[in-house]
Every structure is written in C-alpha cells, then in structure tokens.
Amino acid sequence: MTTATEVLKKYWGFDVFRPLQEEIVHSVISGYDTLALLPTGGGKSICFQVPAMMMDGICIVVSPLVALMKDQVENLKAKGIEAVAIYAGMGKREIDILLDNCIYGKIKFLYLSPERLLSDLVRVRISYMNVNLIAIDEAHCISQWGYDFRPPYLKVKELREIHPNVPVLALTATATPEVRTDIIDKLALKEPQIFVKSFSRKNLSYVVYHLDDKHKKLIDICKNVKGCGLVYVRNRRETADIAHFLQRNHISADFYHAGLDKDVRFQKQEDWKQDKTRIMVATNAFGMGIDKPNVRFVVHLDLPESLEAYYQEAGRAGRDEKRAFAVLLTNKADRMNLEAKYTDSFPSVEEIKKVYHHLGNYYQLAYGAAEGLTFEFDLADFCKRFSIGVIKTMAALKFLERDGYITLTDSVFIPSRLMFTISHEEVYRFQIENAAFDPLIKTIQRSYGGAFDGYVKIKESDLSNRLKISYLDVIAYLKKLQEYQIISYLQQTDQPQLQFVRPRMDMLHLDIDAKFINLRKEIQRSQIEGVLAYAANNICRSVQLLTYFGETKAEKCGVCDVCLAERKAEDKASYYDKMEFEICTLLQGNHLDLDELVTQVATGTDNDKIELIRELLDAGKIKTDGRKYYL
C-alpha cells in the first residue's frame, strides 16, 4: 500500500506533513471517527484528501462555502484527481448525471453543500456509492453554541445512518470546548480520536487601540508596517469608502464585497494575491480559503461579533510564520453599533412570519405550491420591495431555515452549462431541417467536447465572437434550442439561491420555535460580552484568546500591546532603580553639588536624573544644604 507521505509528495509536492496532519491521516486510515481542530492556515483539506486517495472508493466532503468547494474541486482536477461539487443553483438533471458519475465513474471526491442533504434524490444515490470517508469541513456550523450555526448541518448526521461503518472526519479552525462536545454529539461520532493543535500563533502580535480617530491610526499602520494587508469593515459601502480614503493618502488599496460583478471580484482578488494591490478593504467573507502566506497585517475597523470570527479573520495574517500584526481599532460608538446589530438580529415571531409571507408574494407562489423549488434571491431588491431592514430580514431567513421551511445559500458564481438531450443522429437531422441553427450547433460541438454525455461549461461571449453575432442573439438561439428539446441550457448566475423545502404555508400554520430564538439570543449575548471583554481587559491578548478556546495554561505571548506595555513599565522601573542606586552610592560619604552628581551618574538622561534627585529629596532619602547633596 502507498504510504501517506508518498501520496502527499505525488499529488501535493510536499516532503513532510505539517504538525498533526500525519496523525490525523493515520487515525482516518485506521477507521476511527476523528475530530481535528487546526487553526486557520493549518492545512485541513490535506487531512481528508490524502487518506481518501489511499483508499478505494469516494470521499464525501460537506462544506458550507460554495466558493471554497469550487476552488478545491478545481485544485484537485489540476492535480489529475477526479472531483465534483453539487450545490444550490444546479438543475435536477445536472445533479442526476453527476451523482451517476459518482456511483459508476472514477470520481474520488464529491463535495456537497449541507442543503443538498435535504434532498431524497441525493440521499438515495449516496447509499449506492462506495464511500471511503465522510469529511465535514467547518464542523462548528453544526453547533448552536457556535458562532456560525447553520441549520442544514443538522442533516449531516444522516450520512452516518446511510453508511454506518464509514469513518467520519470533522474539521474546524475555531471551536470552544462546549462546541467540540456539541460536534461529537450532533455527528454521533463513535469514540472519536481528538486532535487539537494549539491556537497559539507566536508570530502574530495582537494589538487593540481605543481611539476616536481610527482613520489616522489606519494610515499610520499602513505606512509603518511593510508588506500587504487586509482591512475588515462592517458593510459593503464602507469597503469602497475606506479604499478610496487610503488611495487619497497615496496607499495602494482596493475594495471587495459579494455585490460586485463576478469578473471584477476575481480580478481584484488576483491583483491582491499577486501583490499588484497592497491592501484589500473587504467584508468578512473575503479571505476564506485564500492561502496568501505573506499578509503582514489584518486590521479590524469595527468590533467583530464573536472571538471565533475574530480569531479566524485575524489568523489570515502571517501564515508564512514571520512577524505579523492583528490590529483591532475601537471606540465607544462601536459598542452601540454592536448592540444595535444584536437587537436587529432577533426579530419577533410575528416579524419572521411576515418575511415568510413576503417571500411567497415575491415569487407569486400559491399556497400549497413550490415544494423543492429553487429561486435566485436578490436580498437588496426583496428588502426594498417590502420596506424591511436587511439585518432583520437575514436573521428571519436564518430562523425560517432552522425550522425547515427554506434553505438559503451564499452568493456564488455558477457559469452557464448546456447538454444535448437527443442523440448525435437526431441532432444531425435537426441541423439539416433547420439550417439557421447549423452554425451554432457545429460551433458548440467543436468547442465543447462531451456535451452529449453531460453538462459542459460554456461562455456565450466565446460563441458570440466565433459566430460573429451578438451576445443576446446567442442566448436567444440557445433558449430556442431548449424549447425544441435539442439541448438543456442553464444560464449563469451569481445570485444567492433560495429553496422552499416545504410547500408554501399560510401564516397561521407557520410554527416558529421561539424557545430556540431565545437560546440563540443568550449565546450571541455571551459572544458579544466576550469581544467587549477582550478589547477592554489589560490581560495578554493571546492568553485571553487561548483561554476562550480552552487552553487554560497559556503563557504570555510577550508581543501583544498589553505585554509590550508591561515590559515597558518594568524596563522603566529597573531604569529608575539603577539610577537611584548610583546616586545613593555616589553620595555615601561624599557631598556633591548638582552638576557633579548629574555628571557622575552613568544611567539616564540629564532631565531624568534631575527629576529623580527632586523625588529623592521629597521622599527624604537624600538631603541638601542648598549647595551640596548628601545622604
């Protein structure tokens, strides 16, 4: 059997594993259920990808981040490893073909968003697969005690029921002891092997500044810390405002948020990754899964909502193990903003029911209809249409999701796809009978191989250039071919996808779990208090974070703002102690005038020496006759 190190070298080009990776891989290969806590940048994906490559069969990976799933699938394919991803926004037939390939083909990795586990189609087909490992990424999402609870994750346990003897590997970068216990319970892990890499980041200096003028401090940081950086802000508007402010101050900066066009987002991300842009100002989604090792500083311009989120975002600095800085800039207004957001995050049961009712009207759905239907969801347009607040609406949607009425995925770009739905011969006959479509069909066949076997990604702009017709004409032709049932055509989208899990119900029969809402309220309140305490306490920042994550015997880091202030105070005390000792030694049996005394004391500046002589006189430790000083 090939060894884990040989597989690592063959596909990933590394000679050795990072700390704990090898132990986790061996635990999985030995058939143990495993819980692995590896901080951001610790190389979690290797922990399931290597063992899956060593065993026969397919590895199922559950991940909540569609963009991350797509990245990992592309990376695996680039290494010659067969992998597919299934997420919201895909057509039923498309999913059907991919699942068949997982059963009968050579696919090694099937990535699923947790929402997909709600579908009977997916669950039944998984039961026919030769599964070698079930990997749950971002496993903290299954815990209601966690900072990023995602209700569809509760369905993950059903994978274990379908394949009871297949090992489960749960992975996360941030989990308190309470959340770890909850993960083990909710995933029904059997006698799990638990691996926890210390959350300590010795090269990362945590700093908190309390000040009114955050912008001035941000300029100081950008000018004084060399290398590239990340600045996290609260909302989309702020990303552009702060980036333009930095540019006006002659600092290379750009902004990023999910509302930008897909091509623009990609270009901005690439420019930052390749150091063409020095500083990226973004909302907190940016940076997830981007392994850029040379980030020298991460600045938060607003208080985060939890220490888990803060640790993960700050941890994007210094992945190359060189000195880096995680800076939190805060003032009194931040606390008020955090409190206001907290209040908006918990709509009343009546408000949640209203949002559900608005959804039905938004998509013009009849009562009792829409079960299993998926729609593109434009949050801004929806809120504007019904004059409701964005934060409160998002919170209401999360509670509706938790109670099993809908599912909602993050926005992600899904390219256009098409597939021929009839045979080669039938397509040829159609071309002869419908000459107007002949050039388009020929171009598709030449440009995109495999379109008779399954869906292929297409670019309407490429077809437009090759055929010398307009982009809109290409789309019109493709839609016509779909009407004639020659092809199945799925147009590109980068909108979030909202699915109705149950048929539309009237508001009277909507059952919202108020008890759960109150529990989440308590949890979020304690998370906010944790953030406020972290910012306010004069305790080593690293010790505070490590204690929060269950490392109770953590040592002071020596490099955070609190440790540096302590060291400065200690250095100052020893500096004055040394000066005092020299003054007293010189005056033992001697009477010296001020100039003689100041000149003969070796330690300190003249001003500090004179200041200390005054203090010693006031304390009665030395005396003067008006001209000479003596003990």
Write structural notes for this entry:
With 631 residues, the chain is α/β, with parallel strands linked by helices. It has 5 domains: 4-196, Rossmann fold (3-Layer(aba) Sandwich), CATH 3.40.50.300; 204-330 and 524-548, P-loop containing nucleotide triphosphate hydrolases (Rossmann fold); 340-412 and 495-512, Orthogonal Bundle (Arc Repressor Mutant, subunit A), CATH 1.10.10; 417-490, Orthogonal Bundle (Arc Repressor Mutant, subunit A); 563-630, Arc Repressor Mutant, subunit A, CATH 1.10.10. It contains 25 helices and 22 strands. A 7-stranded parallel sheet has the order 3-4-2-5-6-1-7, sandwiched between helices. Helix 2 runs parallel beside helix 3 and helix 14 crosses helix 16.
Spatially, the strands of the biggest sheet line up as: 3-4-2-5-6-1-7
Average pLDDT score: 90
- Measured distance between first and last alpha carbons: 84 Å
**Can you name the CATH architecture of the largest domain?**
3-Layer(aba) Sandwich
Low-confidence sequence ranges:
none
Oligomer: single chain
State the share of residues found in helices, binned by percent: 40-55%
Shape: elongated
**Overall domain count:** 5
Number of helices: 25
* Strand segment tally: 22
Key features of this structure:
alpha/beta, Rossmann fold, seven-stranded parallel beta sheet, six-stranded parallel beta sheet, 22 strands, 15% strand
